[in-house]
Amino acid sequence: MPPSLPIYMDNASTTRTDPRVVEAMLPYFSEIYGNSASRNHCFGWDAEHAVNTARRQAADLIGAGPKEIIWTSGATESNNLAIKGAARMYAKAPAGESGRGHIITAIHEHKAVIDPCKRLEREGFDVTWLEPGEDGLITRAMIEAALREDTILVTIMWANNELGTINEIPAIGALCHERGVVLHTDATQWVGKMPTNVETDNIDLLSFSGHKIYGPNGVGALYVRRRRPRIRLEAMIDGGGHERGMRSGTLNVAGIVGMGAACALCSAEMDAEGERLFQLRTRLERSLVDSMDVVQINGNIEKRLPHITNISFGFVEGESLMMGIKDIACSSGSACTSASLEPSYVLKALGVGDELAHSSLRLSLGRWTTQEEVDYASLQIREAVEHLRAMSPLYDLHNEGIDISTIEWDAH
Ligand SMILES: *Cc1c(COP(=O)(O)O)cnc(C)c1O
Asked: Deepest in the core among 58, 231, 355, 392, taking most CB within 10 A?
């Protein structure tokens, strides 16, 4: 039976909220609607109890203690709180002066890490922007070579959102702990998909988000280590001292209940689901790579999350490819901004050329992806690529054995 269309293969952008999560959230809109900070009545107590249950569920997913979970509005806020909060707290010189301290990150992090680091640069911090290898990975050795006497913070994502590639965070964390440097990791793509233990993985600060793990939008969490060592952060939002003073504001109880439920489901189903998605992705990649030439999977092949693939198709034009697969919701290697069509900065960081970056697709499978959908998507992509190549003079030259890169193009 053909799958119903369109097919959603953009789970790295956001996920459908699991109906079981929605079910868990519903009472907190209209029955248990108290303010979790209200100490004088049962409406408040019930809300607080629900928030504490969710705190335990989120903590259990990552091997943390419940008091180490700070609720936020999502991973963007968690990253901002972790990076700016730690840098400003551990700064070696007052605001406005230079030499405030050294931070290490990478050029292909999510914008929610890059932009806070750029702001800190303008505030007088030094930032080292590491470049990944061709496989997209940041290694312990790269961090070790970049560490300085005045390094205060390392922020490296656990798994990359465009590639799915996995950095060796436990090894990087061990190094940071040896050197007394705070380690933050943006684990938005990793948590809920892969087993996590902030103790044995040596992590001080870890960001994750509800809507990437089949929970609701607009809720996230930051893990903040409480002992060995105790990490302190300068708050960004003041007012009332909620969340241990690190993030004031009335809690989004329904959202938090949803994120907690989403975490509990991931804890229970992660292993089987990871295996299922790995099989589906393998099937998808095999069918594309084995049936066509000049197809390249971007990023390290082994060290990858099981559900994401990033594939470039040579000799097709990116926009036309996207037009040709209208029934498949996925991301392309082109970042459409209003004025320009820039190739993905992540693929560029790996040394993927502009042409191939434009003609790349990120397909991210999820909890409701079926084998029928994978087969249908593969067929559509193959048809679109073959159709475009049939019209490509460059592809003809390639088939005649001419190396396109050696052709001297007439400039006129
Ligand atoms: C989605 C994502 C974010 C942003 O998360 P929000 O909860 O939408 O703010 C940050 N980092 C990574 C790696 C992501 O994939």
From this structure: 58
